[in-house]
Design a protein that fits this description.
CATH class of the largest domain: Mainly Alpha
Distance between the termini: 25 Å
CATH architecture of the largest domain: Orthogonal Bundle
Number of strands: 0
CATH topology of the largest domain: Rna Polymerase Sigma Factor, Chain: A
Radius of gyration: 17 Å
Number of helices: 7
Number of domains: 2
Structural class: mainly alpha
Order of helices and strands: HHHHHHH
Oligomer: single chain
Strand content: under 5%
Helix content: over 70%
Largest sheet: none
């Protein structure tokens, strides 16, 4: 599975950036795609064409996210919108809460350092790789694993 992750991460992330035009949404989309791929592999189903399967999963996850976005957007009334806080401020509060509680999530030292450098210090994957003396693929995996653990913690 690590080979698939290393081979397809950059391709799927680039595709997700083009689809979402947003770093956070692209990361979320990329994580959802790889989670679905991992789940598919755990079913032990014979895979004829890996490339086709991965892009089919990516497309289906994208369609599902768009449908959910449209559904959620159409259900929000003006009374539910709170204009006293802007989205960036709320994101900072959420990230700060997550960072403060990383030790409770069970991240490894490398996952913790990668996550903190990436999200708090705005380091690139290459900069983190150089600082921690790990390959960029390892850093991508640490970030993927950390995001997965954070999602599990905060999504129940």
């Amino acid at each position: 599975m690590d080979i698939v992750y290393d081979k397809y991460f950059d391709k799927i992330y680039s595709w997700a950036i083009k689809k979402t035009n947003n770093k956070e949404d692209a990361e979320d989309l990329t994580n959802s795609v790889f989670l679905a791929i991992f789940e598919y592999f755990n079913k032990n189903i014979k895979i004829e064409k890996l490339d086709n399967l991965i892009w089919k999963i990516a497309y289906n996850i994208w369609v599902l996210k768009v449908k959910n976005y449209i559904k959620d957007r159409n259900n929000i009334t003006l009374d539910e919108v709170n204009t006293s806080y802007n989205e960036i401020y709320l994101d900072k509060i959420i990230y700060r809460d997550i960072i403060d509680n990383l030790h409770n999530i069970g991240l490894t030292k490398n996952e913790y350092l990668s996550f903190k450098l990436y999200y708090c210090n705005d380091f690139s994957i290459r900069e983190i790789s150089n600082k921690l003396n790990f390959s960029e693929s390892n850093i991508k995996y640490y970030l993927y694993s950390a995001r997965k653990k954070v999602k599990e913690r905060y999504n129940g």
